[in-house]
Design a protein that fits this description.
Number of helices: 2
Oligomer: single chain
Radius of gyration: 12 Å
Structural class: alpha/beta
Strand order of the largest sheet: 1-3-5
Distance between the termini: 24 Å
Shape: globular
Helix content: 10-25%
Order of helices and strands: EHEEEEHE
Largest sheet: 3 strands, parallel
Length: 71
């Protein structure tokens, strides 16, 4: 029996989240993204909700004063 993710995972970089975030909280699953990757940096503290975060992305989010919330 296979376990885990079935099908492709749609990822987004931190630099692109800066452009999408209109408030201080963003739910990426509602926007169709599954995973946050660490390319780029956040310019403001955000609470980011997603299914998966790379270790580097979590570190950068917290360093910017934000929170990484797993769904």
């Amino acid at each position: 029996k296979k376990r885990g993710i079935i099908g492709p995972v749609k990822a987004i970089n931190l630099r692109d989240i800066n452009k999408l975030a209109k408030t201080d909280e963003i739910n990426l699953q509602q926007l169709g993204y599954d995973k946050v990757l660490a390319i780029g940096k956040l310019t403001k503290p955000l609470t980011i909700k997603a299914r998966f975060f790379s270790a580097g992305a979590t570190e950068k989010i917290e360093k910017a004063g934000g929170k990484a919330v797993k769904l």
